[in-house]
Each structure stands twice: as structure tokens, then as C-alpha cells.
Amino acid sequence: MTVQKISATEASRSFSDLLNRVKYAGEEFLVERAGVPFCRIVPVEPKGLLTLQDLAQRIEARGADPEFADAIEEASQLGNSPVIPEDPWTR
Length: 91
Description:
Mean pLDDT: 80
Low-confidence stretches: none
Structural class: alpha+beta
Strand content: 15-25%
Shape: elongated
Number of helices: 4
Order of helices and strands: EHHEEEHHE
Radius of gyration: 19 Å
């Protein structure tokens, strides 16, 4: 889906509709003021469950100790690994 450009004035006039389009249709908007982009309105990643493999990938992507990420990856390969809820504080 492409990002739609919208003026700040139009965004303020139709803010409720804009939010509904983002939430229910997954649309994304680039808000401009005087033709200059200054913010995006995008859907939040869907909340879901975080597996141990997902956790290992996130830790590794953030540059944490590779051995720690490897240990988590190994634990996820054992099968029947517990599902860890996604951290609601992560942006």
C-alpha cells in the first residue's frame, strides 16, 4: 500500500476518519504543512505473541551478546517452547 499525502489542514478536519482508515484499512498518511512533510500516521504493529525465536532475533538485531541470543535460539529449537507475550512498552 502506498503512503498518501495529506495536508495538515485536511488531516485536522477529518482526523476521526483518518484514524479509522489507519486502524481498519491499514492506510498510511504523510502529513504535510505548506507542502513540507513533517509526520506520518501509520498503523501500530499488531499485538501478538513473541516466540523464543523472535526474541533471539530481536536481541541479536540490537547488538546484544551473541551467546545470549544463541542460547535463546537453542531453547526455541527444543520444541514446546513457551510463548512469551510481546512487551507492550516497546515502541
